[in-house]
Specification:
alpha/beta, D-Maltodextrin-Binding Protein, domain 2, 2 domains, 5-stranded mixed β-sheet, 14 helices, 10 strands, 16% strand, ABC_SsuA_sub-bd, Sulfonate ABC transporter substrate-binding protein, signal, Solute-binding_3/MltF_N
């Protein structure tokens, strides 16, 4: 065999190996590590019903994708884990990705849920002298830093024509914030469901404002940039399961309430309250309208000096390819 022919054969072999490697990279991952929070309804339904495990179960054990679940107290903690490679995928509210991007974290927006403006609120004790948002001037407001509640507070102050410096933000994780709120260490609490519903159900709070008219309170799904680039079709599969989970919750309310009551360790009436204010909608990749809305969140934090640099949200938005969207 001539040297030229051998070189040609070697080139064909190397090309085949490269294509094979690319195909493997684009296939289902060996493991999918999912971050979730108490209150991420759809992910919790998938976890409790084992639906992702069923979806990714291969014909042989070696072909299956192992699904691992990791719970976090709030979105900022979840995205920190995503950025350092401890998880591959997770869900947060609108603000955590803005803070993560401003800090140079390695992640991308991959999907979103329909807006849920009624599922978060600024609360005060039922007997508080605070009667309006304007009365928050000079007061201590508890919130998770870098969370959707943080942005809700920004917007609430804007409506009241107050500056950020007019209040004392007290940055606490949800459980610690509730404790501080109930013992009177703070004057108000900005929070999301199910924590909002749980304390509301106690009858000891008043709602100063919900997110409605202030923020769309979007839920976003995020992934590491490497995972999104290699496993786009897997993300589309996950979106389909999340959409089916939403339909399950809406169409099987009694069963869903029982499932979530057990999973969250909350009273049934709290879960019923949470689900009553959730609209139905599919989980989809990011579109132009959602991108514009999220850029406004980022701009608001930058203008107040709450993030160190301006960010362009579009720079970290995953765009599925035709191959990602094609059914396998």
């Amino acid at each position: 065999m001539s040297i030229i022919r051998r070189i040609q054969n070697l080139a064909v072999l190397l090309t085949g190996l490269l294509l094979s490697a690319q195909s493997m990279a684009q296939g289902a991952p060996a493991e999918l590590r999912v971050g979730y929070q108490k209150g991420t309804i759809n992910l919790t339904v998938l976890k409790e019903r084992g639906l992702l495990e069923q979806r990714f179960k291969g014909a042989a054990a070696s072909a299956a994708t192992r699904v691992t679940w990791v719970e976090f107290a709030a979105g900022p903690q979840l995205l920190e884990a995503l950025a350092v490679g401890s998880i591959d995928f997770g869900a947060t509210g609108d603000s955590p990705p803005v803070f993560a991007q401003a800090a140079g974290k390695n992640l991308v927006y991959v999907g979103y849920e329909v807006p849920k403006p009624d599922t978060s609120a600024v609360l005060v004790p039922a007997d508080s002298p605070i009667k309006s948002l304007e009365d928050l001037k000079g007061k201590k407001i508890a919130m998770q830093k870098g969370s959707s509640a943080h942005f809700l507070t920004v917007q609430a102050l804007k409506r009241a024509k107050l500056a950020w410096s007019d209040i004392q933000p007290i940055y606490l994780a949800p459980a610690d914030a509730r404790a501080a709120f109930e013992r009177g260490s703070v004057d108000a609490w900005s929070i999301w469901d199910p924590y909002y519903a749980a304390v509301e159900e106690s009858g000891k709070v008043r709602v100063l404002a919900t997110s409605r008219g202030l923020s769309n309170n979007n839920t976003f799904y995020l992934a590491s940039s490497a995972f999104a680039a290699r496993h786009g079709s897997t993300l589309i599969d996950v979106f389909e399961e999340l959409t089916q989970a939403e339909k399950y919750v809406q169409n099987n309310r009694v069963e869903a309430v029982q499932l979530l009551t057990k999973a969250f360790g909350l009273e049934q009436k709290v879960i019923e309250r949470v689900l009553a204010r959730r609209p139905l909608g599919a989980v989809k990749p990011i579109n132009a309208d959602v991108l514009l809305d999220q850029q406004q969140v980022a701009d608001a934090f930058f203008q107040l000096g709450l993030i160190p640099a301006a960010v362009k949200v579009a720079d970290i938005v995953w765009k599925p390819t035709a191959n990602d969207l094609a059914r396998r």
